[in-house]
Amino acid sequence: LMIYIVCSARTCNENEETSEKQKEQYTINLLNSVKQVFTADSLSDHLLRAYEITAAEKLNDFADFMKIISDTTLDLRFRQHAAELVKELFVSDEIELSGWNKYYPEPDLNILNNLISYSLSKGVSFWNQPMQINFIRPFTSINDSTFTGDLSFNYKSLSLSGQDTSELVTGRLVIDVYLMKKTKTFGKDRLPVWDVYLGDMNEVQEK
Q: Please, which residues bridge with residue 130 across strands?
């Protein structure tokens, strides 16, 4: 009650109003800062390195989403949502995942869309976990709105119960990664923003 009486005073109300205005201005400034980063016309080396970290995170996201999609004990709607999220990670549904499908039961599952459809309908008893992810070709500009690079990594196949089903794959895989500026919708606004996308995957050929 005492707090209520004190805060009902004019000076307290003014302080609250000032505080709210400060919070509002801070939020506006923060949004503007984020907007400047994601919509910048040019990217600094520091930002490019940050986007390279994002690319590695998206590779792990792909593996995690495929684990969900492949698990038939989970609710189908949950798995279907994961499938949509996987598609958003890649530049195309027709991406080729050579080397990623070594333990899958059918050869045509090296195409992303085929792999998603099969995993949703039939399920898969294991998932692939990327390991030792490294950038072997940093993001390099090819035009005003696209950078390309390459990640290399190993992976292990694990059963959905968590038990190891394979040794670490010998040799490494390489995946193309893209940093692209695309127009996206944010509420009523449409803004060109930078984002990272995954591309084709291939086995590293030993010399």
A: 155
How many Å apart are CA 73 and CA 118, to the nearest integer? Answer: 15
Residues 165-203, buried b or exposed e (16+ Cβ, 10 A)? eeeebeebbbbbbbbbbeeeeeeeeeeebbbbbbbbbee
pLDDT of residue 3: 36
Among residues 50, 196, 53, the alpha carbon closest in space to that of 134 is found at 53
- Looking up tokens 């950038």 gives 135
pTM over 0.90: no
d(CA 7, CA 52): 50
CB-based contact 169:187 (threshold 8 Å): no
